[in-house]
Amino acid sequence: MRHRIPWGLSLFVILFAVTGASARQVRATRTQVPPRIDGRLNDIAWTLAESTTGFVYRGVGLPWPAFNQTVVRVLYDDEALYFGVACYEAQAGKIVADMVHHDDPLWLDDSFTIFLDSFDDGRSAYMFVVNALGTRYDAYFTQDGQYIDSSWDGDWKAAAVIEEDRWVAELKIPWRVLHYVDPSDGWGIDFWRNQVPDDESSVWSNLDTNLYKVSKFGRLVGVEDLATGVTASFVPYGTAKRQWNDVEDAILWDDPSLAKTGVWDRFSGGIDLDFRPFPAMSIVGSINPDYAQIESDLDELNLSRDELYLEEKRPFFRDGKSLFDLPLELFYSRRLQDIYYAGKVYGKLGGLRYYLLDVEGTVADKAELTYYRGDWWRERFNANVAALRLVHDVFESSAVGLTAVNKYQRERMTIESLGPFDWD
Questions:
Q1: In angstroms, rounded to a whole number, what is the distance separating the alpha carbons of residues 255 and 319?
Q2: 3-state SS of 215-273?
Q3: Is the pLDDT of residue 115 over 70?
Q4: Which of 85, 84, 274, 78 is nearest to 174 (CA)?
Q5: Is the Cβ–Cβ distance between 138 and 3 less than 8 Å?
Q6: 311-320 burial code (b ≥16 CB/10 A, e <16)
Q7: Rama region for 66: left / alpha / beta (φ>0; ψ in -120 to 50; rest)
C-alpha cells in the first residue's frame, strides 16, 4: 500500500512551511511500557503516539511535498526517547542498504536522520542516523554545522526492517547519553530522509540550503515531569601480562629493568568514573585507563615534513572535545600518551559552554626524535597538561571564546602556556 498526502494537505504543508519552519512541532507521548527495539512498529505504545509527516523535498527551492512520504512517532519515559519511523517507498526493491559498520557513511544508503537540539540554543545539535539495515551513525555539531564532531559516540540502539512498501526503523536514545536543558520548554528537532536510488532527500522542517541550520528546526514538545536525578557510573579493570623481551637496550623501554632479557609478569589496574550532577554537566575521572579495546589507527605513509594528524578515539578525550574544534588547533590530545590519572569537567550553563581538563602522564614531543635500529622513535616525557575552553554565545549566531593550555614537564623543567581569545 502506498502512503501519500492528499493535495489539499500538501498545499497546507506548503503554506505552513512558508509561514515559518518554527511552526512545525512533534509531540512526544509518555509511555508506561517502552517499545521493543526490533524494527517493527507493532507495540501497543506506538498506537497511542501522535504522528507527524508532511516531509518536503530538500534543495528544490520550494517546499514541495515528497512523493514517498515518511511518518514519525515519538515516545518517552524516564529512561529514554523513542522514535518510530516509517519510510514509505513505492518500489521497495530499489532500497539501497550496504553499510554495516557503526559510523559508516550512511548518507550513501537509504537512511533516516534525527537532529536533536537538546540545549535549545539554535546553534548545536546531536545527530542520530540509521539506515535500512539498522546500522548506526552519530555525531555532534556546533555553529550550524561549521564544526562537526563525528568521533562522538553515544550508547543508543536502533533496528530496521524492510517491508513490502516501506522500511521501518526504531530508535532508543537514553537521556544519559545527552547533555540537555529541561525538555518541558521544548527542544529543537528535525528529520532528514535520504533516498539513494532516486537521488532524493526530504526534510521535515528545515528548508534552508544548510542542512545543519539549527535555528530552522521544528519543535519537540510534550516531554514533562522527567525524573532526572544525579547519575554516576564507574568501571574498574585489571590486567595481567607476561612479556618476553630480547632487546637488551633500554632506549625503547620506560622501565630500564626491561632491557634485560627474560620473562616478566606485569599486573595493572585502574578505574573510570563518570558523575553527572546535572543533565547539562559531566565530571569525569580516570586512573591508569586501559585503552586496549580502542580501535587502532590505520597505517599511513607520510612523506612530508609535517606529522600525521591522528583522530582522537579514546572516550575520555573524545567526549566534549568539539569545543576545541578551531581553524588553528591549540590542543592536540593525541600527544598525551600513557595516562597516570586525569580529570575533566564539561557542559553548558546558560549561554556559556565550558571544558576544563587536567592530565598527568607522558607526552610525545614533536621535536624530540631518537634514531634506533633503522627507525625514528618519538621521545616521551612525563608532564602535566591542563586545558581550558570557554565559549559564550553572543548575538544571533556568533560566539566569543577563550582557550588556555598549560604544559609542565618536570624532567626538562619547562612550562609552556598560551591563552588566546577567538571570535566566531
A1: 31
A2: HHCEEEECCCCCCCCCEEEEEEEEEEEEEEECCCCHHHCCCHHHHCCEEEEEEEEEEEE
A3: yes
A4: 78
A5: no
A6: ebebbbbbbb
A7: beta
HSE (side-chain half, CA atoms, 13 Å) at 80? 18
- For 30, the grid coordinates are 509518555
| Residue bearing cell 559498520 | 101
pLDDT tens, position by position, 134-159: 999 999 998 888 888 888 888 999 99
Contact 13, 63 (CB under 8 A): yes
Distant-in-sequence, close-in-space partners of 49: CB < 8 Å, separation ≥ 6: 28, 29, 31, 73, 74, 75, 84
Q: How confident is the model at residue 6 (pLDDT cuts 50, 70, 90)?
A: very low
pLDDT tens digits along 43-55 = 999 999 999 999 9
| CA atoms within a 13 Å half-sphere pointing along the CA-CB vector of 227 | 4
Q: Distance between CA 69 and CA 87 in Å, rounded?
A: 7
Q: Is the distance from CB of 147 to CB of 325 less than 8 angstroms?
A: yes
Choose among 109, 127, 49: nearest CA to 82. Answer: 49
Mean pLDDT of the 301-318 span? 77
Q: What percent of the chain has pLDDT over 90?
A: 46
Task: Give residue 230's pLDDT.
Answer: 81
Grid cell 509561514 in the structure block, residue: 19
Report residue 421 as a C-alpha cell.
Answer: 581569545
Find cell 578525550 and name the residue: 317
For residue 22, name the pLDDT band (cuts at 50, 70, 90). very low
CA–CA separation, 192 and 321 (whole Å) = 26
- Please say whether the beta carbons of 347 and 280 come within 8 A: yes
pLDDT digits (tens, 9 = 90+) for 221-240: 999 988 877 888 888 887 77
The backbone torsions φ and ψ at residue 303, rounded to the nearest 5 degrees and listed phi first, read: -105, 5
This prediction's pTM: 0.81
Helical segments of 255-360, H only: 315-318
Count Cβ atoms below 10 Å from residue 371 Cβ, excluding itself.
8
Alpha-carbon span 128 to 113, nearest angstrom: 6
